[in-house]
Amino acid sequence: MESSPEHLAVTSSGGTTTVRVIGDLDLHARAEAEQLIHQVECDGVDDLILDLKRLGFIDSTGVSALLSLAHTVRKRYGRVRLRNAPERALFLLDVRGGMGMFDDRGKRSA
After folding, report:
1. In terms of Cα–Cα distance, which of 100, 94, 17, 96 is closest to 64?
2. Which of 2, 34, 76, 101 has the most neighbouring CB atoms within 10 Å?
3. Mean pLDDT in runs of 10 for the chain (110 residues)?
4. So what CATH class is 8-100?
């Protein structure tokens, strides 16, 4: 699975899939996020990193997309990790009760 659409860049290496969010993750990115969720499910991804370093803005639609991705992987007993999550994203995920979906709550990469 490799792609570089407008808002989500996906790479796979060594059994780990990394999704890099680029720019805004909002209503305008919804179709792209839904396509990615479907692809993650079809590909049987069980080790996912969500890198939010280049996230510009996130709204409730974006939070829902992140939680749906996490749920898709976790239902196969997979692992989902957040990287470089900005405070706003962490706050919104926490408000939605979704922080427990992630194995390491938004660590900053070195």
Report:
1. 96
2. 101
3. 65 94 92 92 94 95 95 94 95 94 67
4. alpha beta
